[in-house]
Amino acid sequence: MNPLIVPLVALSLLAGETCAQASSEIRISSAGSQPSVKGAAENFTGKVRVDGLFKGDHPARIGGGTVTFEPGARTAWHTHPLGQTLIVTAGVGYVQQEGGPRQEIHPGDIVWIPPQTRHWHGATAANGMTHIAIAEAQDGKAVTWAEKVSEAQYEGASVAAQKVVASQTVTHTQPASDTLSAKQQTIPLIAAFMATSDMPTLNVALNQGLDAGLTGSEAKEILTQLYAYVGFPRSLNALSELMNVVEARKQRGIHDAPGREPSRAIPTGEALLAAGTANQTRISGEPVKGPVFDFAPVINQFLQAHLFGDIFERDNLDWQSRELATVGALAATPGAESQLRSHMRASMRVGLSAEQLRQVSEVLAARGDELSAKRASTALSQALAASGG
Length: 389
Fold this sequence. Notes:
This protein is α+β, with helices and mostly antiparallel strands. Helix content is about 45%, strand content about 15%. Strands 1-3-4-12-7-10 form a six-stranded antiparallel sheet. It has a three-stranded antiparallel sheet with strand order 9-8-11, with helices on one face. Strands 2-5 form a two-stranded antiparallel sheet. Helix 3 crosses helix 11 (about 320-330), helix 5 (about 215-225) runs antiparallel to helix 7 and helix 11 (about 320-330) packs antiparallel against helix 12. This is Carboxymuconolactone decarboxylase. One of its GO terms (molecular function) is peroxiredoxin activity. InterPro entries: AhpD-like, CMD-like, Cupin_2, HNL-like_cupin, RmlC-like_jellyroll, RmlC_Cupin_sf.
């Protein structure tokens, strides 16, 4: 664990409150009972949301909340009079003390910030981050804000870190571009032909993906993830086809890069549900609610704990690749247009550009899958219209 720094955004929003009177009874604030609060523009760069704000009754001085940073969002430089504790629950973030190196933090990391330590923290350029932050106020004040972190300061640190970890880790997302890489172009094709059980064409797409640099681990992860969208039978059949492809390539003297397994343990129990809920919220842009989830709450629990928890917490496939696979599979699935629109929006939230998503339709059409291409194009147009893009 990096023994560094991270501020409590929530406390800056609480600093002006008067202390509540002491109570002799336990008090429970139910999840969702308090509105989300936006991070003040003068103290943050990018989109920041604070949930579950709390403050202890007098004579306690403790307070905090759950803070979510969108990709690229961060605090300004600041200090805390009595220090602070941060518990990362989802995503990938950075913390940096003035004069020291920027360090990367992950779910489960606990960070202690010494009193009066000038620092900043936030999400990486390509990944969001959520943490619980707890600190004490002194004379009613929990944070002192200074100037914002400049782009040069933020991006300069990023370059150094990327050189260290580029060969070792897979981040959730990559910076947005106007074109899909050759490897990325094969992902929606693999997903679409897996979803329709078109094994001969899937065989061709898998070979093209491996030729373009897809590792064995990434190919397996794509086909495994998609059982959540198109079912176990198709996933199992596609994995069997991949196994045949890999063996046939070996017989031809082609030895594909195996890739790697996830680099960290997946949370369990309540920690898994919390991580999955945070991932779902970040990818969806807001907490997921609706009549269907009110009618059958367990389906959202499965989505949060399993799909966005067990699966999306696996870091051997970045989130852009996961969304490209999901878009490809849903585009090939008649009747899933609503979900396809949602995942077009999600794809842009994890860093894919509208131009890249238009390319998904183009590669599907070029492969002769006109219906899937049309569904993808229509869903993207509707998603852009809804967001004003």
